[in-house]
Amino acid sequence: MVTLNAGAGTLAVHVEGPAKVAVVCKEVADGYEFSYVPPTPGVYMVNVKYSNITIAGAPFRSVVAGIRSPSSIMHAFHMEPLRG
User: 19: which residues sit within 8 A by CB, 6+ positions away?
Assistant: First the structure.
């Protein structure tokens, strides 16, 4: 997420789905990067807010398929904006 010139604010990322997911967020030069590793396949909803305002396109629908193994965390991942 690019927050360069967005002003001071707090970033909040929340993921809901068939399993609990820990979200890791780090600040980078032009904003923030976040990641999460779903432990089970399914549909996850990713909501992102900046300064308590939902960003455009959120929540995002994330479809995770495949299985988690020591050598491969996810076999397939797709994230798209949720359409009304």
Answer: 38, 39, 40, 42
